[in-house]
Amino acid sequence: MPVAVVTDSTAYLPADLAPRLTVVPLTVIVGGVQGLEGVEVSPADVSRAMTGRRIAVQTSRPAPEQFAVTYRRLLDQGASGVVSVHLSAELSGTVESAVLASAEFGDRVTVIDSRSTGMGLGFPALAAVRAAAGGAGLVEVEHATREAIGRTFTFFYVDTLEFLRRGGRINAAEALFGTALSVKPILHVRDGTIAIREKVRTASRGLARLVDLAVAAAEETAVDVAVHHLAAPQRAEALAGALAVRLGDRLCDRYVTEAGAAVGAHAGPGLACVVVHRRP
Asked: Where do the DSSP E strands lie in 87-234?
């Protein structure tokens, strides 16, 4: 059997692509009640909690044993090795759990930090799947994954920085500055962390800048694009349409998915995200 590929539930893969790899879910805690992301807790659950009575929403990484059970099962089923690629270690302890679990299996399991999340994680995971399906060995699949990470760029807009501040994903000074000036933040994932890229005055301007940044990141290459949202489907469709027009024939595959509970808990309702993946 080829190399097996494992990722986590923050990849937010389109439903037709998810079966190609094994997904280990994060845990989401809504009002003190735990559930597995995408299994027991949906994006709608998180959105309702954050917009209604402001019920506390938290996230927790998978336990190392969850990964160990997954790796053991795949290897027992005949996989020649496992590449396990996950959301940034700067945003979650998920990679640490995977590394702890991998120690049991020696060089048969390789853990990779995608330095991103959403389809910033999903595109490298799919690159790993394609390499494995083509007969590549463990080292070659790892190389294909890391190479894809370097060709993937993530930009996003949120209505407020408050949720990112509460979750510790952005520093308090940046959040306070944005709130005080009533600006709308455009953020990007840089070196595995979330950073403010620009500040604009209106939501419409923020979404327009997302398109500009995505087109600039594409350069002159063929690209795949993913658009994520939380409780903002109209924003997502508008972004996807604008990107199709601006990128023209350079746009290959385009995906629109709702961000799951783990990322939504920190970004908040209204999230709009664009991930650009340059094809090799």
From this structure: 109-113, 152-157, 184-190, 193-200, 223-229
Using alpha carbons only, give the angle 15, 232, 93 rounded to the nearest 5 degrees: 60
Task: Tell me yes or no: is domain 4-26+61-149 CATH 3.40.50.10170.
Answer: yes
Reference 198, options 163, 157, 144, 166; nearest CA is 157
DSSP label at 108? G
Q: Report the C-alpha gap between 250 and 266 in whole angstroms.
A: 32
User: Nearest to residue 116, comparing CAs of 277, 270, 252?
Assistant: 277
pLDDT per residue as tens digits for the range 44-58 = 888 888 886 678 888
Supply the pLDDT for residue 192: 92
Q: What angle do CA 146, 70, 95 make, to 5 degrees?
A: 40
Pick among 3.30.457.10, 3.30.1180.10, 3.90.1210.10, 3.40.50.2300: CATH of 152-278:
3.30.1180.10
Q: Above pLDDT 90, what percent of the chain? A: 69
Cβ-proximal residues to 248 (8 Å cutoff; 6+ apart), any chain:
none
Tell me: pLDDT of 186 over 70. Answer: yes
Tokens of 109: 């399991």
**Can you read off the two tokens belonging to residue 69?**
């059970």
Exposed e or buried b for every residue in 174-183, given b needs 16+ CB within 10 A?
Answer: bbeebeeeeb
Distance CA 221, CA 200 (A): 28
Residues 88-138: tens digit of each pLDDT: 999 999 999 999 999 999 999 999 999 999 999 999 999 999 999 999 999
- Residue 176's pLDDT is what? 47
Q: Mean per-residue pLDDT for 159-165? A: 71
